[in-house]
Amino acid sequence: MNKFVLMLAVLLSACGGGGGGHDAPSTPAPAPAPAPAPEPVPPTSPAPAENTGSIALTPSVLDVSTVEGESQNVTLTVKLAKPVSGAVFVDLSLPPPFESRGTTEKIDALTYSRTLTTFSNLSAGTKSGLLTVSIVVCPNGCGDAQVIHESKHPYRVEVLPAQPNLTPLQRLDGAGAWSSRYGNGANSSYVPTTVKLNPASFKLRWKTADTRFISSPLTANGYIIAHTGSKLEALREHDGARIWSINSNPTSADEPVILKNKVFTPEYLGFDSAITGYEISTGQKSLSILGSSSKLRTDGESLYFDYLKTIAGQTFYQLTRTDSATGAAGWQIQHDLFRADRRVAIDDQYAYAYMFNKLRVFRKSDGVEAFSLDHELGDNATSRPLTAMVDSSQRIIGGWYSLSHAYLTSFSIVTKKQMWSVKDGFRSLPSLAHNMLYTVATQTNSAERPSLQARSGDTGAVIWSVLLPDTVNSNQNVMYEVITVGDIIFISSNRLVGGATYAVDRNTRQIVWTYPVTGRMGISENGSLLIQSSSGNLLAFNLR
Q1: For residue 433, which of 466, 482, 503, 500 has the smallest C-alpha distance?
Q2: Cβ distance 16 to 47 under 8 Å?
Q3: What is the C-alpha separation between 24 and 257, in angstroms, rounded?
Q4: What separation in angstroms does the CA of 283 have from each of 11, 228, 235, 239, 268?
Q5: 450 FRET partner, CA 20 to 30 A, in 18, 411, 439, 493?
Q6: What pLDDT score was predicted for residue 16?
Q7: What are the residues facing 541 on neighbouring strands?
Q8: d(CA 462, CA 448)
């Protein structure tokens, strides 16, 4: 279930009857009998004018979308202008679409939150009205509870019909199979269609209700492949119907790949590990390649993966190219590739391994190192895989994350030199399209709204940016995904509370579509947008 976090900036003057002092718990105990107090203010009445602040709701309308038979949580966050003495709680006069969930929670000395939820039995359609929000302070144990602010805010609840929107599917010009996470062997997250997409046509097609997936969705030939953590499943793109389901214990659930009408996934097999191939149409097992592996990739012809090998008690990654029909290793690069977890990229000629101190480039034909380019990140630890990406201008982009910041580094294959390197608060790998890098970032170690940045492929400089409605604290491990489909840039995240999937038009530089679900994304050959939501459901959207 997804949640919207809506910020309420509450500017309050000094609380009447509040002497200064300490912060009280956010959830008050049951109020005892009223204690004598000068000019007490009833809990249900607004405080005198001098104690009334103003509330600004962002966004100005509490806008919620849900589907028939489901409920949607909304968390209201109230921020005080200054600390007040005593307990603070947020009282909501709930209209029919909502019911209360939980009590007021204290986030810090100035910030409080309250969650409500929509009823799950709402019929399809749009419900709107006014929600009353009251800020109540209990200076002395709630014996003299005071309503210091009360205001009404508009709400809009859109309930989408559960009946699928099953319009005919048509091949999207320029789109191919979404065969691996980030789309292809180049890890470019780009669909080079020239079709002009109309955001008004973006509609939910179907949504799984009985299955929760954990992997990025892959698509080919009308099939969708996803992993539940215990089962590998194939769904029909047209209506989401399950085609087959097999038991599978993945070693890396986010890295299956589709190659030549087979899906390959790294699995545990008792005490051994293997890469197992299954027929995409039937789920029948067709191949098993023994050995531990990590970050499986494909160029449409062969499988590439880091084979984990232990030498003298130490585990190393060594890059392997394998024939997808026989399982025979074409070549294997020795163990001097260090232990850093990484995701290689492949183009027509080379395989690229991005490392802490260099980019290594290997010939696809025989695995011989063609050349390497030195660089220095200044750190030797990563919280996520070191990822190589190939753009359309013979450049390699290296993406690397630490716990507090990240680098994007560009290398020219033509000049065999590093072009530029940028250190920033990146929260996504870039989508490489139109000679640009589209990525999400916040300022390093800050709490602010993240931005979609458009950076020059030539220099790495920010050309333009768009603020996203989300708020990300520096201690939140929130990461984003970015996909470009023609002129539309889709952005989503792994956050469980708040946020949404957004579409930005790169020409107008405006958010043109929003849907209240976050998760990993994929694009099918037919132009369906797939979102494996953070709550586990898989959703398919018509983009035409």
Answers
A1: 482
A2: yes
A3: 53
A4: 59, 15, 11, 19, 17
A5: 411
A6: 34
A7: 204, 529
A8: 18
Q: Is there a contact between 205 and 165 (Cβ–Cβ < 8 Å)?
A: yes
Q: What DSSP assignment string belongs to 179-214?
A: -STTSSTT---EE---S---GGG-EEEEE-SS----
Residue whose pair of structure tokens reads 């029948």 in the numeric block: 284
The Cα–Cα gap between 174 and 193 comes to 4
Q: Take residue 405 and report the two structure tokens written for it.
A: 């910041």
* Exposure on the CB side of residue 24, measured as CA atoms within 13 A: 20
Nearest CA to 86 among 35, 159, 125? 35
Q: What is the DSSP string of 374-387?
A: E---S----SS-EE
> Which secondary-structure segment (H or E) carries 519?
strand 519-523
Per-residue model confidence (pLDDT) at position 55: 55
Show the tokens assigned to 381: 């630890």
How far, in Å, CA of 139 to CA of 441, rounded?
41
- Token pair 């939820």 in the structure block, residue: 117
One-letter identity of residue 185 = G
Residue 50: phi and psi, rounded to 5, are: -70, -15
- The SS3 assignment for 51 reads helix
Given a contact cutoff of 8 angstroms between Cβ atoms, the answer to whether 40 and 109 are in contact is no
Q: What is the mean pLDDT of each run of 10 residues along the chain (544 residues)?
A: 40 34 37 39 39 48 72 74 80 81 76 80 85 82 77 80 76 95 95 95 87 90 92 94 92 81 88 88 90 82 83 78 89 70 91 88 94 78 84 90 81 94 92 96 70 96 93 75 98 85 96 91 96 89 93
Beta bridge partners of 136: 89, 147
Q: Rounded to whole angstroms, what are the CA distances from 325 to 263, 292, 392, 475?
A: 12, 19, 29, 46
The residues that bridge with 244 in the sheet, in sequence order, are: 234
Angle at 398 between CA 463 and CA 349, to 5 degrees: 110
CA-CA distances (angstroms) from residue 92 to 1, 79, 83, 113, 121? 22, 16, 21, 11, 21
The DSSP element (H or E) to which 342 belongs, if any, is strand 342-343
Token reading at 148: 């210091």
In whole angstroms, give the CA distance from residue 199 to residue 463. Answer: 24
